[in-house]
Automatic annotation (TrEMBL):
Gene Ontology molecular function terms on file: unfolded protein binding
Name of the protein this chain belongs to: Outer membrane protein
InterPro entries xrefs: Chaperone_Skp (IPR005632), Skp_dom_sf (IPR024930)
GO biological process: protein stabilization
Organism: Litorivivens lipolytica
Coiled-coil intervals, chain numbering: 31-114
Cleavable signal peptide: 1-22
Length: 170
């Protein structure tokens, strides 16, 4: 009889625990995407991409890529009639061009990453406000990092909703 009461009590506690868990929801959030998809972040990225220096670097990458492609095409076309020295010289030119492309590309990426960090720092407090309000209003019990989840349906992903609230909270 005591065992039956213990089992019944355990079952009752399990049902109560699952009911309380159901009251709080588990959601997924990509913090960086929520911030970077905001209007303010998009405006700042667009402005950076319109800057003279950024455009010049972008044009340089395109020019270097064209030159690289021409060198590769020439090597493919003429490699059968080239001697070893000519092959080495052409291969060296291709390698140098690739290094130049990578250097300018890294400059572009560094500028973009710097801006992203600035925007994340700037909008971080606003994101925290929005998320704290959503936790209370939507009775959220747990927020998981979207990048750490293997699978999540859109119903549990609040990233777009957070971005919308950041945009509204100007």
């Amino acid at each position: 009889m005591l065992k039956l009461k213990t089992v019944a009590l355990s079952l009752l506690l399990a049902v109560a625990a699952s009911a309380s868990l159901a009251a709080e929801s588990i959601v997924v959030l990509d913090v960086q995407a929520a911030i970077l998809n905001s209007d303010k972040a998009q405006d700042r990225l667009k402005a950076m991409r319109e800057e003279k220096e950024f455009k010049a670097n972008l044009k340089e990458v395109e020019k270097l890529q064209e030159e690289h492609n021409e060198l590769v095409a020439k090597l493919k076309k003429d490699s059968a009639v080239m001697n070893q020295e000519q092959l080495q010289a052409q291969t060296q030119k291709i390698s140098e061009k690739r290094s130049d492309i990578e250097h300018v590309y890294r400059k572009l990426k560094a500028a973009e990453q710097k801006l992203v960090q600035e925007v994340v720092q700037e909008l971080g407090p606003k994101l925290q406000e929005v998320v704290n309000k959503m936790i209370k209003d939507d009775n959220i019990g747990m927020i998981l990092d979207a990048k750490a989840t293997l699978h999540v349906t859109n119903a549990y992903n609040i990233t777009a909703k957070v971005t919308d609230k950041i945009n509204q909270a100007k």
